[in-house]
Amino acid sequence: MREFSEDYLRRTRSGMWDDSREALEPLALGSRDRILDVGCGTGELSRVLAAECPGEVIGCDADRDLLAIARDHVPVVAGDALELPFPDDAFDLVVCQALLINLPDPAAAVAEFARVSTDLVAAIEPDNGAVAVDSSVDAEESLERRARRAYLDGVDTDVTLGADAKTAFTDAGLDVCETRRYDHDRTIEPPYDEHALTVARRKASGAGLADDRETMLDGELTGPEYDDLRSAWREMGRDVIDQMTDRDYRRTETVPFYVTVGRVPDA
């Protein structure tokens, strides 16, 4: 399973659910007694669940460093998603966010979630293949698309799972109740914060692509094709910095998430 830093989790989940929680309605959070957030990371979703649930919310993650941050929001327990440290029927809702896309066998995880749930299991998973980028730099959208396609081709789990998470639910023996879509927008515009400036500098240096080079080359992308992409990427990054200097740069990235809800049989 891939590991993620505190900064990555905070950055990619910043503002998520602040604009609308309509897609979470099938979880009936207001009626829950005990919720488990599996793979909670820094507790970004746990915080939202705790705000909506009158009962108890517990976060669970294998990374103890991330749990040290998540415990600011909810009680936490260290544990593996495929072998949860809880007895059968310990919760009435088990939920995860952007976890199944990083597991080689999502159905096995869903089955383990069902073991500890008396009622519902929910997965909030992105379709990373359908990310949309709107940028004031003409070349950014097409280069992002090329880089994303090459990266996804080299990843060994299904990071485009999204709406197809329901297959993992049925494979695990759950009855799928509903799937709803939620679009998470991340926007960069003036005034630019330090993170936005750092991202721009990493584009201009090619450092961002360098981090993903090994994964990209695990797919069909060749070495020379990677070098050409990185060269164009660095040029695009310089255009981003130029526009930032004039306070003209704007970028919106939209990541589609799908909330899939399943009921434990005989619940």
From TrEMBL:
GO terms for molecular function: methyltransferase activity. Pfam families: Methyltransf_11 (PF08241). Residues 36-116 form the Methyltransferase type domain. It is an enzyme of class 2 (transferase). Keywords: Methyltransferase, Transferase. Its EC number is 2.1.1.-. GO terms for biological process: methylation. PANTHER family: 2-METHOXY-6-POLYPRENYL-1,4-BENZOQUINOL METHYLASE, MITOCHONDRIAL, METHYLTRANSFERASE. This is Class I SAM-dependent methyltransferase. The lineage of its organism: Archaea, Methanobacteriati, Methanobacteriota, Stenosarchaea group, Halobacteria.
